[in-house]
Design a protein that fits this description.
Blueprint (H helix, E strand, L loop, with lengths): L4 E5 L4 E6 L11 H16 L5 E6 L10 H11 L4 H8 L1 H11 L4 E5 L3 E2 L1 H8 L2 E5 L6 E2 L13 H9 L1 H10 L2 E2 L1 H7 L4 E3 L4 H10 L25 H18 L4 H13 L4 H17 L1 H18 L15 E5 L3 H12 L3 E5 L3 H20 L5 H9 L1 E4 L10 E4 L5 H14 L5 E4 L6 H4 L9 E6 L8 E6 L5 H13 L3 E6 L6 H17 L4 H10 L6 H8 L1 H15 L9 H10 L12 E2 L7 E2 L3 H4 L11 H21 L6 H12 L8 H8 L1 H15 L7 H9 L8 H8 L1
Parallel strand pairs: 2-3, 3-4, 4-6, 5-7, 6-9, 10-11, 10-13, 11-12, 13-14, 14-15, 16-17
Antiparallel strand pairs: 1-2, 7-8, 15-16, 18-19
């Protein structure tokens, strides 16, 4: 036994290498494991009494891949290391796996559960792969999802195993396959009963089929389906693949391009040279900013949020048997649906029984889709739907643990439903508002229990959007926050916690993007150019399309309410005039009304409304601005607003801004979020660029004092301002 690896040998000369990392629920690859694995392989190859080796795990799953937390820390320090040193260190595990497959003894991988990333690369380097027949197990190479590529031979063994055309989708999309689907795809050799897995592995080693030579190391091997720049099928695959790749990534994500290059170049070379090519591309991604940003925000910080890192300590964990849902529109129906999916009873209340039933019908449709796609049985769907009780009465709220309102975005309407609900609720129950912009502290003024009042801001469609913005009012107590976070976790959403303010974080952050797009429209910039700039910057849709999706009439109501609330203190945004014109003069409310910045013809794709040019004339083509300039404006406008939220105390940590920006609004994931973007650019450089934008376009781009102080002190949100450090070193 060497730390996390146990090696045993039976009387038949069959050795078993069992991976069992102490103190971890799942095996992962780190420096220690890599060294131990390499040493164990060398020992087994050198042992004359060993005829063959079974590689397996003592845990319920096989191995999940690299230790991304440790990887992320090294990514920070590796920036100062010589590239050749980083390359050599990253190649160690690749060389250990290559030694295993060329050492002259047969290795069989007994995949006893999930095997992802480096875990499955271990399996690919074994001469035979048998997976336990567990439908819940996942097999695949998902590295692309965190900005990396399979760096221990995955980009070379997969196409040599099943061909380039079949391998590319698995590599480029990071698909997870069940054991039986992995068998059908040809990336494993067999499935076995979980209890007979080791017996099946040993049987193969003792059979005449056992071999210690991989197909690609045999004389005359050719990649299935062909490879190389002169092979017609390979050429066609890469031509089509490159076009599809650029359409999906818009040149923002280097990992898919690196994977394509690895496969194209590597499959024309002997395996050892091919692995060198893979390691070089992997090193480049490892040292680049995109993987570092994505791992930090989408894996580490999202994981912390999912584990409720912002939850107050000392409050007992809450469970939820029953909740009340006030308002059965798309939002209320969606919240009811995800709660019922989590096993929670829901009283769905609306003004009429008919309206409440429509809200339940929304869940029925979603469940029917899941059944049709074979993701749920009809019995399971029926059980979920039975947990939603549609009604026009408030009696059912008397034993609810939590009541959420998702009614019209109007202060008076929300006040009315709050009073009616609290009259029926138990004292200990929490009341939550799903408002997207109205300050929670103001809404709580009508409550008889303001300490039990909190904001839970969901995003539409609720069944698909992973984020919940938890808003703490001035009177909200620690217990209410803790229990609310427990609820968000129970329904399998990711929470961020923000302090109360007008628009909170996500709504004003979203508004900054829409406002900049509408300002561009006022400037005479072509609508198609505005929209393309947003998408090419990495946003899921352009700012005008997002305005339609979030409803222009809702934005109009919010701005009208703010003007009432603030009076002379209300400061219009640079693009407000467009919102008021669209509603008050043109009657175009957005997608829900089938007319906004886009038209939505029945049965056809949406298209930009031609009338935009009549109301906001477009400048001549020769006067249209540079695309990169527009992309910068759209991203920087949002990033600046995130900084202001930190400065004002709305956000209490940059992690919440980055996770919330990506999961709630789709802020360019390749950046790692708005605050990671600033770190990537360099705080000093970002401040200079924003000052130039402010001089040219207006004070909305003027950097806040927090940023100026960070620039002076050489600080970043997650560490030193690298651009400042580089300049100082130069």
């Amino acid at each position: 036994m060497t730390g996390s690896i146990i090696v045993t040998r039976d009387e038949d000369g069959i050795a078993t290498l069992t991976i069992d990392q102490h103190g971890r629920s799942m095996n992962v690859i780190d420096d220690t494991f890599s060294a131990e694995f390499a040493a164990a392989v060398e020992g087994l190859i050198a042992d004359a009494g060993v005829k063959g080796v079974i590689v397996t795990s003592a845990k319920k799953d096989f191995l999940a891949g690299a230790d991304l937390i440790g990887f992320s820390k090294w990514m920070e320090t590796a920036q100062a290391e010589p590239v050749a040193q980083v390359y050599a260190k990253l190649r160690r595990f690749t060389l250990a796996l290559r030694r295993m497959e060329t050492g002259g003894k047969p290795f069989v991988c007994a995949i006893n559960g999930t095997a992802l990333g480096g875990g499955f690369e271990i399996a690919l380097a074994c001469h035979h792969r048998i997976a336990a027949d567990k439908p819940s197990a996942k097999i695949g190479l998902p590295e692309v999802q965190v900005g990396l590529l399979p760096g221990a031979g995955g980009t070379q063994r997969m196409p040599r195993l099943i061909g380039i055309q079949a391998a590319l989708p698995l590599l480029l999309e990071g698909r997870h396959l069940s054991p039986r689907k992995a068998l059908a795809a040809g990336i494993i050799h067999a499935v076995a009963d979980p209890h007979a897995l080791l017996d099946a592995a040993k049987a193969w080693l003792l059979s005449s089929d056992a071999t210690a030579v991989q197909p690609w190391d045999q004389k005359g091997f050719k990649v299935p389906g062909g490879s190389g720049g002169m092979h017609p099928a390979a050429v066609q695959t890469f031509m089509a693949g490159n076009a599809m790749l650029q359409e999906k990534t818009l040149h923002n994500y280097p990992a898919p391009e690196a994977i394509m290059s690895c496969v194209y170049e590597g499959t024309q070379l002997p395996m050892d040279k091919a692995l060198e090519v893979e390691s070089k591309y992997f090193t480049k991604l490892f040292l680049g900013p995109v993987a570092r940003n994505m791992i930090r925000s989408l894996f580490i910080n999202k994981g912390k949020a999912d584990k409720l890192s912002r939850r107050p300590e000392g409050v007992p964990k809450a469970t939820f048997r029953k909740i009340g849902m006030l308002g059965a529109g798309m939002m209320g129906g969606g919240i009811a649906h995800v709660a019922a999916l989590a096993g929670i009873e829901v009283v769905l209340v609306d003004r009429t029984l008919e309206a409440a039933e429509r809200g339940k019908g929304y869940s029925a449709k979603l469940l029917a889709d899941l059944v049709a796609k074979k993701r749920m049985s009809q019995g399971e769907a029926d059980a979920v739907l039975s947990r939603i009780h549609a009604t026009d009465a408030h009696d059912g709220l008397k034993d609810a643990d939590l009541v959420i309102e998702a009614v019209f975005e109007d202060r008076a309407v929300k006040a009315e439903v709050t009073r009616m609900a609290e009259a029926a609720m138990q004292d200990a129950a929490i009341f939550a508002s799903n408002t997207s912009t109205l300050p929670i502290s103001g809404l709580a003024e009508v409550s008889v229990r303001p300490h039990r009042f909190i904001g839970l801001h969901f995003f539409s469609p609720v069944d698909k959007m992973p984020l919940v913005e938890v808003i703490v009012g001035k009177a909200t107590d620690r217990e209410t926050l803790a229990r609310s976070l427990d609820f968000v976790q129970a329904i399998r959403k990711t929470p961020i916690v923000v302090n109360d303010a007008r628009g909170f974080f996500t709504s004003r952050f979203c508004g900054a993007y829409i406002n900049e797009g509408q300002t561009m429209l006022l400037e005479g910039i072509a609508p198609a150019l505005i929209e393309n700039a947003g998408r090419l910057a990495g946003m899921p849709v352009g700012p005008l399309a997002l305005a339609d999706e979030t409803a222009i009439d809702l934005a109009h109501r919010i701005k009208t309410q703010w003007r009432k609330d603030l009076g002379d203190a209300y400061v219009p945004q640079s693009g407000d005039a467009v919102t008021f014109t669209m509603i008050e003069e043109l009657g175009r409310p957005g997608r829900k009304g089938r007319k906004g910045f886009y038209d939505y013809p029945e049965g056809q794709k949406k298209r930009l409304w031609p009338g935009l040019a009549e109301h906001w004339p477009t400048k001549p083509e020769t006067e249209q601005p540079d695309l990169e300039h527009l992309k910068t404006r759209l991203l920087y406008a949002q990033a600046l607003d995130a900084v202001r939220c930190l400065e004002e105390g709305v956000l209490t940590a940059p992690e919440d801004g980055d996770v919330g920006g990506i999961l709630g609004l789709g802020f360019a994931p390749w950046t790692g979020g708005p605050l990671s973007l600033i770190d990537m650019v360099g705080v000093s450089t970002f401040v200079s660029r924003c000052d130039a934008l402010a001089d040219a376009l207006g004070e909305r781009f003027r950097p806040p004092q927090l940023l100026r102080a960070m620039a002076r002190e050489g600080r970043g949100f997650y560490g030193p301002d690298r651009s400042a450090a580089r300049a100082a070193a130069a």
